[in-house]
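Worked example

This section walks through a single chain of length 217. The input is the sequence exactly as stored; nothing has been trimmed or padded.
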Amino acid sequence: MKKKLLMLFCVVFLYADEENIKNGLFFGLELGVNSLQMEVFENFTPLSLQKKIFAEIGLKLGDQLYYTENFGAKLSVYCGLGNKIIFSDFAYKDFAVSQSILPFSMGVDFAFLYDVVNRENFVFGLNFGAGYRFRQYFLLHEGIYSLKNNFHIHQIYPEIGVHFYIHNHQIALSYRFGGILSQKSAKNQATLYGANDTFYLRGTLEDYATLEYSYRF
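Given that input, the structure is written out below as tokens.
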């Protein structure tokens, strides 16, 4: 499977139209609105189930090539950081446990581009493709009683969206679906700061939307 994907990338970029002015390296920002559901277990008995929405912003670097006037492809790498997620107190014995989480992610995206409106200084089109994210969630110790031991989630997703070009400025709106791989982390063992009790954590991701701005060189 990996060899077939690599061959596809090579074919796509090998037969590009080198004279197309929409070709080029691009660099920019991506803003995503995501959600994380966290489950806390003790001896596999659920103690807490909460879902929080959070924003994530990151840097994107890539290359795009067109091999007809309206049809092209782009490949990019990404690295981003989310805002701190605070899960409200849940009761355990005589403790009130509060947990803050800091999301970090990196990955790669590939998309085909089809331009519907193609004028000299303005382009509007559709994009569809797939991507991969490795998401690491750092558990922050901010109270007397909080959990430790970070967890991560691997995510492979299809995506669809639209894009606009105004001269060399590029904007893309995309929606990323579920995931080919499970978007649930494995049950990760975590110890409670301030006590000797052991818990299990599991994080779950859902579909999310992104807004991307980049400048094409």
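What to look for: The longest helix spans residues 2-14.
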